[in-house]
Amino acid sequence: LSQELxxxxxxLTSAEAxxxxxxxWLGRKQGRLKAISEAWLxxxxxxxxxxIGQRFNQLKAEIEQRLESASTGTGSGALDAEAIxxxxxxxxxxxxxxxxxxxxxxxxxxxxxxxxxxxxxxxxVETDYYNFESLNFPPGHPARDTQDTLVVANQERKPxxxxxxxxxxxxxxxxxxxxxxxxxxxxxxxxxxxxxxAADATHSPIFHQIEGLCVDTNITFSDLKGTLDHAMxxxxxxxxxxxxxxxxxxxxxxxxxxxxxxxxxxGKGCRKCKHSGWIELLGCGMVNPxxxxxxxxxxxxxxxxxxxGFAFGMGVDRIxxxxxxxxxxxxxxxxxxxxxxxxx
Length: 344
Ligand code: PHE
Description:
Layout (H helix, E strand, L loop, with lengths): L1 H8 L5 H12 L5 H10 L4 H27 L4 H7 L16 H14 L4 E2 L5 E3 H4 L32 E3 L5 H9 L4 E10 L11 E11 L4 H16 L5 E8 L2 E10 L16 E10 L1 H8 L11 E8 H9 L6 H4 L2 H4 L4
Parallel strand pairs: 1-4
Antiparallel strand pairs: 2-3, 4-5, 5-9, 6-7, 7-8, 8-9
Helix pairs in contact: 2-4, 3-4, 6-11
């Protein structure tokens, strides 16, 4: 029997072989062990029962031990290789991807960092003072209506300047930055802003802006034009041209809207520029002396007789939509992985 066991254990080289070995010896209905116990144990004379029983148990233990060593891999090499096949591809974890808005924001911020700008941030829940008053939107001024402000509830008992709202632009961080540090300042402020706009293909109540602020002695409108022209060429390609139109913002004077020649058709006209050859991208202007006046309450060095500056603001979502050919702004905020996977 031992020889028979040795011989049949030779072939334990696969999971199937181990299973048929188990069935052959230990099978409940037709296993060898069952047959042995029936043929010998039951019919043995009483005196021999003890010895035969011992031998029987020994055999059973041997069979089990062989099964054990075969399945834990201390048996044949072939079975080892089957238990852990190190050539099989592993289970991969899905890698996340940078969100297209964050990616666009990083790339634009990097353009300004290479020009010596640093990066600043500020709160999304703002006070009326920083979002409006210090930016030269007086209480009741009609320019406030252009901002579609979402306000925080139950603020009526506070003085107007302390009432909380969702910032409608990143410009309040201009004031916060200047209050914290004397001139010179060169800073870009990427961030999320909020407006009470109904969501459609081109509007989202949450979107992103990048603000810029440069304050020093003798900063001129030429510096503003040169800086933005260079930044747009860096970001969109050196063939891109810029042009400036008169505009209005309470916190800049003079103010301008900036268009770039369409980077997709080279200005010939295509769907992305609505066949005009130009795309409007920025608001900007020279910092209004009245704004320096508010800052001076905390930082007297912002004396409009001694320093000057420019500021600009651009919408990130629109730039990302054009760059990646996204036709619905809502995709950026849907969290739909079928959309986001395309940027991996
Ligand atoms: N804050 C303005 C807006 O949201 C943009 C802007 C920023 C304009 C800085 C001029 C200077 O519309």
